[in-house]
Design a protein that fits this description.
This protein has 4 helices and 9 strands, in the order αβαββββαβββαβ. With 165 residues, it is α+β, with helices and mostly antiparallel strands. Strands 1, 2, 3, 4, 5, 6, 7, 8 and 9 form a 9-stranded mixed sheet that branches. The chain is globular and about 50 Å long.
Length: 165
């Protein structure tokens, strides 16, 4: 990583390390806005902390699964968001039952993006998930929302980095 920090992009002048970023949302936005967040009675996390969890269920809000949302930048760079996706309770049960099994490789889910991704927004956008690598959470692969589908399929200019945390 040290070499990437010193090297600069010929297009935007930023450190090359800034072009290969992972941005991970700790909680789904609806959970973040709730008074008790993930500590509400009856909540369930797949791991000890939301930042390491891949699934969660919060009563009165719903179940969520973590997914990867890759964004391609010009010149072959990318940013990857670790987002939460709201899913149907039946799908949450199905995902939990295969997560550590060979059938995980075939897991597909449909839900709604549960994080607002600046500068695009996209909260509540429908999204389809699929496992691309059994060592990763599912990936956002398509959407019936034209805006999210554009984000998933188009290449974005480096200036988008100015809008990220």
């Amino acid at each position: 990583m040290g070499i990437l920090k010193k090297r600069r992009c010929s297009t935007c002048g930023r450190s090359l390390a800034a072009h290969e970023r992972d941005v991970r949302f700790q909680l789904p936005d609806p959970v973040l806005k709730s008074p008790e967040q993930h500590h509400a009675e009856g909540s369930w996390l797949s791991h000890k902390h939301p930042n390491t969890s891949v699934m969660m269920m919060v009563p009165e809000i719903g179940p969520f699964v973590r997914a990867l949302l890759p964004v391609r930048l010009t010149e072959g760079h990318s940013i990857q968001f670790g987002v939460w996706v709201a899913i149907h309770p039946d799908d949450a049960e199905r995902a939990a039952s295969v997560w550590l099994e060979p059938d995980y490789a075939d897991l597909t889910l449909t839900g709604y993006l549960a994080n607002n991704i600046e500068p695009w927004g996209l909260l509540r956008s429908p999204v389809d998930l699929a496992v691309r690598n059994v060592d990763h959470t599912p990936y956002c692969v398509s959407s019936s929302s034209p805006e999210l589908e554009d984000l998933l399929t188009n290449e974005w200019p480096h200036s988008i980095l100015d809008s990220l945390p």
